[in-house]
Amino acid sequence: MVTIYSSPSTNCSGLFSSYSNSSSIGFYNYHNNLPISSRNFASHKISLQINAVRMQDGAVVAPPSKTQDETPLKKLKDGILSKEQKHIFDFDSNKDKSTVSITVVGASGDLAKKKIFPALFALYYEGCLPEHFTIFGYARSKMTDDELRNMVSKTLTCRIDKRENCGEKMEQFLQRCFYHSGQYDSQENFAELDKKLKEHEAGRFSNRLFYLSIPPNIFINAVRCASLSASSAHGWTRVIVEKPFGRDSESSAALTGALKQYLKEDQIFRIDHYLGKELVENLSVLRFSNLIFEPLWSRQYIRNVQFIFSEDFGTEGRGGYFDHYGIIRDIMQNHLLQILALFAMETPVSLDAEDIRNEKVKVLRSMRPLQLDDVIVGQYKSHTKGGVNYPGYTDDKTVPKDSLTPTFAAAALFIDNARWDGVPFLMKAGKALHTRSAEIRVQFRHVPGNLYNKNFGSDLDQATNELVIRVQPDEAIYLKINNKVPGLGMRLDRSNLNLLYSARYSKEIPDAYERLLLDAIEGEHRLFIRSDELDAAWSLFTPVLKELEHKKIVPESYPYGSRGPIGAHYLAARYKVRWGDLA
After folding, report:
1. Nearest to 270 by CA among 521, 531, 528, 532
2. Which of 121, 167, 419, 487 has the fewest CB atoms lying closer than 10 Å?
3. CB atoms closer than 10 angstroms to residue 364
4. Cβ–Cβ < 8 Å for 505, 475
5. How far apart are CA 205 and CA 90, in angstroms?
6. Do residues 207 and 232 touch, judged by C-beta distance below 8 A?
7. Is 334 helix (H, G, I), strand (E, B) or coil?
8. In this structure, are residues 357 and 525 in contact, taking their beta carbons and an 8 Å threshold?
9. C-alpha–C-alpha distance, residues 202 and 352, integer Å
């Protein structure tokens, strides 16, 4: 085995310094035929200086002095590597000659236009993409390169702090964008794409990323064709898969099994864009790097935890898709459960992706399967407000008139481990509610023997400390504390210690897709979902989903623009909890 000591690389604009590694020139452990991690941030060239070489017997030797014709790296390579290994070495040690080809499969869809292409441009604008990269759109629609560029250009925006060269950067980015029309189940069409990719890669060491922005029923066909006909011959090939990852445990397992016929687990990046949001990313920092929080993070001090998601609009013509899944599958089983796992996990061994995901899986496996008695479902109905009539869910022409699909759900979950035993974790998610928000609310226990109880009257909940992490909009972290109002009397008030991101930080917060796309390019799995994690998540929700459908449970109606069904309040009250967003 050979170990190379090299100088560290520069991170991309400081975005992800929390898990930056020293640079690697992509050496392989030839003794065990396993790759050592290779990372290359942005377009910065890696300057490699070999200080020492540790041989397999443990001896450390200095490299030979450089001559006019031979570098120490070349001598090392010629002396210990086989012909095949030299070929791999030549590709991997010339990072400035490598390229990344990004193919957006389903490029004509809304997700690609509104999120993926703008995120890729933002990464380019910040200097976070490699020096050599190409972006291809792939879809069934007939389109030229110029037509794709015109479509993409309408959705691109520039960073507010670097607007002066926006037009120039945008034009440079669009010149890297190309289009190929083809069927998702055609190996021949993907082979044609492969030919075009090779032309643009121009003999460089090629790495390829495929983003599947397509319906889940055609995932497998696209993966099969891309894997067999358009994989990289020498570098890595990775695939980003959008949710939903099935409808239940069985369909999810079948999807995973089918994907693994063509890809290894480390090639699959199951994306949940909520894990890329700034405040979700900050959860572990808040908890593990601040002494005041970690000792309080348990059943001893926390009375309940609430994960709340609300949208102030309905299905808006997407009822056909939504009616097949419903709010539990669309929001609770993935977005909110992933945040819960990050919130409740034990301290990981390190910030390595596998260490973090291992702890998340432990949390999910410690949770009780959800019971029907601990679930409330609702469906919004039409409502007139301010002279405007808002349609009900079944008024959507793409939704069956007799649909029982919930547009609102509330649930109480429990983690049966030493840290969280008996603490209710309440989830609430809904469409067509009174506001748009996503937040985590941590309600602490009452102060035992509180000297100031008489100042709060009979409602002790008003005196409860509460930590609120607002994920969106207007990202913020604030702590509710009790405070004396200035004056001669003893009057108490509830005040907020507030960190409002827009006031504290001048830099615009990156979109979640920017962070996740960059992670996928770098091979960082920390914010992506592993297959066993997905299995554990579905095992919690599948039984209650089947029971809801088998018993044809009728959702409780609630008016469009209201705070949701009354049943959600009764569910919280059963566990002596009051929803924090309604206070």
Report:
1. 528
2. 487
3. 23
4. no
5. 9
6. yes
7. helix
8. yes
9. 34
Task: Report how far Cα 187 is from the mean position of its chain's Cα atoms.
Answer: 30
* Predicted TM-score of the model (pTM): 0.80
Token pair belonging to 136: 């291809």
Structure letter (DSSP) for residue 566: T
Please tell me the chain's helix, strand, coil percentages from 3-state DSSP, rounded to the nearest 5: 40, 20, 40
How far apart are the C-alpha atoms of 304 and 407, rounded to whole Å? 24
Question: With 50 as the cut, is the pLDDT of residue 267 above it?
Answer: yes
3-class SS of residue 570: helix
Q: Judge contact between 261 and 520, C-beta under 8 A.
A: no
Number of neighbouring beta carbons within 10 Å of residue 569:
17
Pairing of strands 302-310, 425-430: parallel
Q: Could you give the C-alpha distances from 295 to 71, 135, 284, 414, 470, in angstroms and in order?
A: 54, 47, 14, 20, 22
**DSSP state string for 100-130:** EEEEEETTTSHHIIIIIHHHHHHHHHTT-S-
**DSSP character string of 354-412:** HHHHHHHHHHHHTBPPPPGGGEEEEEEE-EEETTEEEPPGGGSTTS-TT----SEEEEE
Whether pLDDT at 510 is above 50: yes
Give CA separation, 376 vs 101, 260, 315, 406, 412, in Å.
Answer: 46, 36, 20, 9, 9
Residue 235's contacts (CB-CB under 8 Å, 6 or more residues apart) are 91, 98, 205, 206, 207, 208
- Residues 553, 377: Cα–Cα separation, whole Å: 8
> Token pair for residue 126?
């910040």
Angle at 61 between CA 57 and CA 66, to 5 degrees: 140
Contact 190, 208 (CB under 8 A): no
Question: Largest Cα–Cα distance of the chain, in whole Å?
Answer: 87
Looking at residue 253, its pLDDT comes to: 93
The number of angstroms, rounded, from the C-alpha of 340 to the middle of its chain's C-alpha atoms is: 14
Which residue in the list 132, 273, 335, 525 is annotated as catalytic? 335
The pairing of strands 375-381 and 556-559 is parallel
Annotated catalytic, 234? no
Name the range with the highest mean pLDDT among 59-68, 218-227, 459-468, 501-510: 218-227
The residues that bridge with 429 in the sheet, in sequence order, are 309, 409
On the 0-12 / 13-18 / 19+ scale of CB atoms within 10 A, 120 is buried
Tokens coding 364 = 């999910």
pLDDT at position 164: 66
Angle between helices 145-153 and 166-174 (to 10 degrees): 150
Backbone angles phi, psi at 318, to 5 degrees: -95, 20
Distance CA 72, CA 61 (A): 12
Q: pLDDT by residue (tens digit) across 305-349?
A: 999 999 999 888 778 888 889 999 999 999 999 999 999 999 999
* pLDDT number for residue 166: 79
Q: Are strands 302-310 and 437-444 parallel, antiparallel or unpaired?
A: antiparallel
pLDDT in tens, 340-397: 999 999 999 998 999 999 999 999 999 998 999 999 999 999 988 888 888 999 988 8
